[in-house]
Amino acid sequence: MNESAPRSPETSWKATVRRLEREEARLAACVADDEWRFAGLKNLDHVFGLCATRFSLALHILEGVRASGEPAPRLYRRARQCAVSGLALLEELQATGISSDQRELIAGDPGYRHARELFQELVVRGGGALLEPEQAAAATSRELARIVTAALRKYAARDDTYAPLFHSERLPLPLRRFLRSMFANVAPENEPDPPYGIEREEDQELLAAERIRLPLSQAILLFENEILPPLQQQLAANPGDPRLQQEIARIEHQLDELRRTRFIPRSTPIVLEKGFYTEWFSGFTADGEALVSVPLRVTFRGGTNLDRMQELITAEIARRTAGRGICPELDAAYQYLRSLESGIYGSSRTPSLRLNARRGFRILKQSVPALARLEDRDELRRLLALVAASSRWRAERQIEAVLASGRLPPQLQGER
User: Fold this and answer.
1) Per-residue pLDDT tens digits for 230-255
2) For the purposes of burial, counting CB atoms within 10 Å of the CB of 270, is it exposed (0-12), middle (13-18) or buried (19 or more)?
3) Which helix (H) or strand (E) holds 193?
4) Which of 42, 218, 275, 363 has the smallest number of CB atoms closer than 10 Å to its CB?
């Protein structure tokens, strides 16, 4: 019998790379399918597995290229793509608006720890250079500086200093009763004077809710996998418990109702600012899926005025940058939303309004790391002050310097 010859080290690492690429493609398809079927829901096993696979792939490519001693620009670009996309996926998960009590569960997940360890190993073995951004053209930097300046100028002025049109408590009693019954939320009595909102981070309150509104597909999944199985296990341990039987029957009836629910999205959806009004005013997600209320306790922080301003600014930058030739990955997402393949999730007329602004900004930040300054509270305050006190041309030159160097110019620096 002829024995096969042992593989050379070069053949071995290339075979490992091919195996990891197949695994990456499988997990990426799983993550995309989860988001498509369940309105952006993420399976942590798939996400952490994809991050770990990408870090392992970058590590094997880097070590294999070094061992071969031959220049391999295509493989190096592939390693950089894996490292950057894996890190972006972890950052996206951390930045997701999840309940405060769930963050510790994610940080303690074995898959998350394994992905973090692989990333640290990649950096220790010289993979930190893969995360360095490529130098952008001067024209691109100027265009991006104009976009950032316009977004900062748009939201630099305070919008929470408006005074009530009238004080309903000062009106005659019959009119007060009418307003109280018909417009209690629009014209409340004893409304405080401006400014409104929370200014300081330490003044935030930890809020809790016993119920939450979820897209229909997520609600069905929650009932099937999180709410019903524990009750069935309790009933198996205590057969004949009437309370458990009634609760299971009620939930199964509600689950059947959700499964039978069908909705037909509008061909031209109503465009609303994504957030509170999208969900509570329209009763649908921004992608047109119906929202239902489920008994799930969550805790969250109320946020500050600066948090709201920061979210508006970064979303404005992502939407204005998409399709401008500044970030190829962001342009690809924009073109997909314009195409017919995007289905109800896209729009051929207003694709930028259907863009996932948070994800888009993180993609843009991979190309221009200096944009992370906008996520720092102190830096954002300084940039807002600069834009408010300077002319548009001067502000654009200053912000272009920030984006080019990654450091604050002297006139923006100060005591922290």
Assistant:
1) 888 888 888 888 888 888 898 888 88
2) exposed
3) none
4) 275
